[in-house]
Structure prediction request, 517 residues.
Amino acid sequence: MSKDKFLRGALVLTAAGLMVKIIGSVNRILLSRLLGGEGIGLYQMAYPVYLLLLSISSAGIPIAISILVSERVAKNEYRSVRHVFSTSIKMMAGVGLVLAILLYLAAGWSVSTGIVRDPRAYYALIALTPAIFFASILACFRGFFQGWQLMTPPAVSQIVEQFVRVCTMIVLAYLLLPHGLEYAAAGAAFGAVPGSLTGILVLGYFYKKYNKSWREKENLLPVDTPLESTGKLIKRMLLLALPVSLANVMVPVSSSVDMLIVPNRLVDVGYSIKEATTLFGYLAGMAQPLIMMATIPTLSLAASLVPAISEAFTLKDFDIVCEKSSTAMKLCCLITVPAAVGMVTLATPISVLLYGTAKAATAICHSGPAIWLLGMQQITAGMLQGTGNINLPMIHMVIGIIVKVFAVYFLTNATFNIVGAAWATNISFALIAFLNIWALSKLGIKFKYGAIMKIVFAAISMGIFCYVVEPMVLGYKLLTILAVVMAGVIYVVMLCLLGVLNKEEASKLPILKKFIK
Prediction:
């Protein structure tokens, strides 16, 4: 395995993640204009149910399969790799089918009991049922390729899946709109079905493409190589997948903490319902999406890191484990620290540029540190998962959410209002990241904190420039964009002056290595 393979994989997944986000943004704009607030409301009543079932059924499967596959690839057990894949496909097809049937049967019950408030959302719920089956199988394919550290197939499938999904949503919503909003919303929801099915077909094509070389590797092994029993393999897979799935369920739970507590606390301390809703909109609807967008690279890096760490850990090559972990943390800081500083110092121009108002600037400014903290949380969770410590990220996340509940309640007060809510999130991310880093240190994995401090210094130097020019660019979109570009140049120059990236490290990066050569 080349040392930069996981970096190349991270870059591919990042590009795919950005493309998927862009396509999704276009979809939200078009669908909102087509269906209006009422139609989008019907769609949103059904889609979270689908996402929850998907998180329960298959959120942890790609990581579990990638760990199992990478372990066997490291030991050249290629027949066992195929056994893992075939077993996971059969298991997840069964799980997906059961959950799809349950959703179909529970759709009417959820409407009649008032869990889903508007009866018209029933059709959207029904339309989503086949998607759970196909998405469960799709998760197996993605985990399989990630285990081989082949990130291009999952990346291509994500983009194609999102494109087909969006096109289907728009076309069906448009065609069904004359029959009623409920049917148009159902048509939009059904877009997930051909999307996931297309994703399977794309990965099926890649599977066929690589299958010949995999067969050749299998033929080099003795035919009588014993395989792990199916029951034992399923048990191991579930033990790996369940904690990751629970951790994924914790993500919407963490967001729900803000939704359930922040508006009520603002009303309790003297704000009107309208004012509380507006302030919460600045935080949840404007600031937090920027955090999610900025951490796409670190999320991709974490996904690519898991099989790379798992492979080295299986071979008991602890030096490689430490090297990849240190490189990943360094890259995480290189990306997230300047993004956090830029979001803090240019909050007002960014708010005006993106949202046409300066009123979200306070929420954006105080949410900035979350970019760095969440990035470290994602990366360190990937390291722990790669070393087989699957339960720890979930446990740490539960602790972080409990702390966040208390922090949101006490900090969202008359003095701090929405600023307190933003810092409650920062505190939660910081605590989870610290617990992950502490657990890694117990395993003997440490980071180059000197290099990280240099990155912070370079970002602060960039931030000083942003602070100085911020009043000059306010209200001017072109100048704001120019200021961001200039800040990036200053940051890169400072990195070079401080010697943060040496030639050997830069030569491992997928794009920079071409210029180094």
Summary: The first helix runs from residue 5 to 58.
